Amino acid sequence: MQLLKDRIIKDGKIRFGNVLKVDSFLNHQMDIELFSEIGKEFKNRFIEDEVTKILTIEASGIGIACIAAQYFKVPVVFAKKNQTKNIAGDVYTGKVESFTHGRTYDIIVAKEFLQQEDKVLIIDDFLANGSALLGLTKLVRDAGATLVGAGIVIEKGFQEGGELVRSHGVRVESLAIIDSMNEEDGLVFRN
């Protein structure tokens, strides 16, 4: 998606440790017009899949998932990273390791929001090591629902996550795949 790539080049900042800061438009301050174009693109890529739910993980994926859901006309469910008093009863659980935060989280979704008849599209902002995506995939499979695929805004193609997730049979549609990045040479996108 050229619009997204151009924005990453213009406003993204490369930091030590393979960190790409896109917080000025994607995951802290959010550019809703850009999100709208991202949502349209995900709808185009998954138009034949009869999506009934979009699943994401808190917090950065929520805004993107909500805008995308408008095009699919379906609800968004987000996996929480902490047990809360609001979630009572049966839950699906999994573990994910955050590349950015360097820690492991227990994620949960109330069973009432993921049903066997659902056709689920996972949406997230980044794909790096694949842990979040595999954790969300586990929740969908534990529910007996159908996973139609994953829509990723930015994939770090030089890390193992994309290959790992695809090797588990998950269809991954990434809008921008970065093959390499460093402060000296900048970003190289996959065509």
From TrEMBL:
Keywords from the UniProt entry: Cytoplasm, Glycosyltransferase, Purine salvage, Transferase
Highest rank taxon of the organism: Bacteria
Biological process terms in GO annotation: purine ribonucleoside salvage; xanthine metabolic process; XMP salvage
Protein name per UniProt: Xanthine phosphoribosyltransferase
Primary localization class, coarse: cytoplasm
GO molecular function: xanthine phosphoribosyltransferase activity
InterPro entries tied to this protein: PRTase-like, PRTase_dom, Pur/Pyrimidine_PRTase, Xanthine_PRibTrfase
Catalytic activity, EC: 2.4.2.22
Family assignment from sequence similarity: Belongs to the purine/pyrimidine phosphoribosyltransferase family. Xpt subfamily.
Positions contributing to xanthine binding: L20, N27, K156
EC class name: transferase
Presence of keyword Ribonucleoprotein: no
Catalysis performed (reactions): XMP + diphosphate = xanthine + 5-phospho-alpha-D-ribose 1-diphosphate
UniProt function note: Converts the preformed base xanthine, a product of nucleic acid breakdown, to xanthosine 5'-monophosphate (XMP), so it can be reused for RNA or DNA synthesis.
Coiled-coil segments: none
Residues that coordinate or bind 5-phospho-alpha-D-ribose 1-diphosphate: A128, N129, G130, S131, A132
Complex formation: Homodimer.
Subcellular location(s) per record: Cytoplasm
Pfam family, one: Pribosyltran
Any single Gene Ontology cellular-component annotation: cytoplasm
